[in-house]
Amino acid sequence: MTGSSYLRIRSVQKSYKGAVALHDINLDVEQGAFISLLGPSGCGKSTLLQILAGLLDADRGQIELGGEDITDLPPWKRNIGLVFQNYALFPHLSIRQNVRFGLDMLGMDRAEAEKRVDESLAMVGLDPALSRRPGELSGGQQQRVAIARAIAIRPRLLLLDEPLSNLDAVLRHKVRLELRELHDRTGITTIMVTHDQAEALATSDRIAVMNSGRIQQYEPPETLYRAPATAFIAGFVGSPPANLLPLTARDADSWTLANGHVWRPLARLAPQANGVKPGTACLMALRPETLAIETAGEGGLSARIAAIEFVGGDRLVHVETGGTQLTVRMAAEQAIAGPEILLFPPQETPLLFDANGGMRLQAAL
Ligand SMILES: Nc1ncnc2c1ncn2[C@@H]1O[C@H](COP(=O)(O)OP(=O)(O)O)[C@@H](O)[C@H]1O
Ligand SMILES: [Mg+2]
Hints:
This protein is α+β, with helices and mostly antiparallel strands. Helices cover 23% and strands 32% of the residues. The protein folds into two domains: 7-233, 3-Layer(aba) Sandwich (Rossmann fold), CATH 3.40.50.300; 243-354, CATH 2.40.50.140.
């Protein structure tokens, strides 16, 4: 990483009563970027965000923002905006008072603060004349107020913790685009926490994928999709994510599947062509949208269709092969034979992971 990163997180660790929540977090964020922390529930995303905000102390490690060491700075001196999933608005204050709260804390004079409130409400698409209290607003409007409150202080960093989770599916889609637009207009360096990979892919310049208190990969969305560093990421990113087919190299040309059947694939997918020695247990990531279903041909995987799911323009075909369930995504109008079929992965370099530990076997892709 370069020495010019705006936010530098170094060796941050955190345990709760002996249980490690963050192992050794290192992360660099460029000024003006929109990044996501993506991972399943309990992987440590909120813990890291709260440490950045100063609401939690790390056990060790260092945080630098704009060249300043903020590790021991109290939250109100960090000038960081924070938005929670549940909005956390003050119910007894009006909308305007909620947005003005942080400005009053900073001791800003009244006229200037009022101007800032107008600006911030307009920025999130709310009427600055709104005189109601938070309880009278919809979830989507409350979330806008929370965002307006966070940006009113013109933060050096905007932190969003699952900001869309309480919104219904349609609104979630709309607001995630608005968040990105707001970012592009304001240029505020933004970190969003989410467990929803589609949300992270749609909004972020880079995504830090977390699992069990560690960052496994930190890359732009396209790279995570094309070259996942671990089997966990391959099986987490994508709609639906990649299938992970367990197989063991039998010899140079063939694999043994989970149920003991032998698969002799076309050359590019064979163990030797990928530098895999006989006896090595692997996971091959197969993207649902790249698998082809055929009735005849050399090198296919014998499979049986178990169920077909209609998902709008596409169908998800659930098949069983070699003792493993896989999903194939195909256009709804495409005819499917069956139930006995042959499955063909694409003829490119396959994504292969070590079955022990899940690291990708190929160094570069
Ligand atoms: N206040 C707390 N006390 C004890 N354990 C906690 C506390 N907060 C979080 N944890 C634990 O730390 C881990 C990470 O939690 P969290 O950062 O909330 O994850 P995420 O936001 O990714 O769901 C989890 O195992 C969680 O149970
Ligand atoms: Mg959380």
